[in-house]
Amino acid sequence: MSVTIYQQIKEFYDASSGLWEEIWGEHMHHGYYGVYGTERKNRREAQIDLIEELLNWSGVQEAENILDVGCGIGGSSLYLAEKFHAQATGITLSPVQAARATERAKEAGLAARSKFLVANAQAMPFEDNSFDLVWSLESGEHMPDKTRFMQECYRVLKPGGTLIMVTWCHRPIDKKPLTADEQKHLQDIYQVYCLPYVISLPEYEAIARQLPLNNIRSADWSQAVAPFWNVVIDSAFTPQAIIGLLRAGWTTIQGALSLGLMRRGYERGLIRFGLLCGNK
Ligand code: SAH
Q: Which residue CA neighbors atom 10 of ligand 1 most closely?
């Protein structure tokens, strides 16, 4: 199962990243629209605000050696390298993304301080205790083994270092298990966005406790980010985007046609935007 899902993820991002960058820019993650999701702002500004709000929330004020797990085309990696005058390494399953991130680093004059590799987060090619900040923004949902993924993030973290993980979750299930209809809704999302499955935030916290990560904090920012999907939906059906979609192929088109799945997922409280941070 895993080999197939890795291959699907690779193909999904190889095919769609050029279009995403053309229409939406270098950040392939939600934007932040204020605690209650009521602030109106430009989409890219909202995406950068999400990074800044995450740093604020986690209390990270400096970093020397950053790992961006599931780095896309290096949006966060280069932003953080620049902000902290740090060294940044990004890993992705997509060779197209790694090449584009490397090119973007050169364009930004950050080539000497950054490195992008095609590598699997479930078995990272790094020594133990290598990074003082491990950053994973919207990649955990793609991982077939969530425990193994978090163990790897923990292993490569230096003692005292910080893990910041932000990922798509489903609602907590301690009070009420997922209904058949909710499960069907999730299956549709998994299929379109190449996700093996997602779990709830309390389940991630339980894994974090076993690592054992210290000073664990978690938060649900669904309300703050949910407006993002309206913005994406509005911009996905412009002529420029439609031409790009046709060029990118069927999987990407399917992704665009299914944007409403995520919007409805947030509306019914099924999809949650989960944050977790802690120290080694
Ligand atoms: N964090 C980036 C990109 C998010 S898109 C941003 O915010 O802009 C999800 C990313 O996770 C993609 O780059 C994809 O290649 C990566 N990814 C998914 N599964 C992975 C795995 N097993 N190992 C490494 N990267 C993975």
A: 70
How much is the pTM?
A: 0.95
Of residues 158 and 247, which shows the higher confidence score?
Answer: 158
Q: Which of 201, 197, 204, 185 is nearest to 262 (CA)?
A: 185
Q: Ligand 1 in contact with 157 (CB < 6 A)?
A: no
pLDDT digits (tens, 9 = 90+) for 67-105: 999 999 999 999 999 999 999 999 999 999 999 999 999
In the DSSP assignment, the letter for residue 77 is H
Residue to mutate (ligand 1; options 9, 122, 136, 153; most atoms within 8 A of CB)? 9
Q: Listing from the earlier edge strand, what are the strands of the sheet with 114-118?
A: 114-118, 87-92, 65-69, 131-137, 157-170, 271-279, 214-220
Structural domains for the chain:
2-279 (3.40.50.150)
Torsion, Cα 188 218 20 183, to 10 degrees, reads: 0
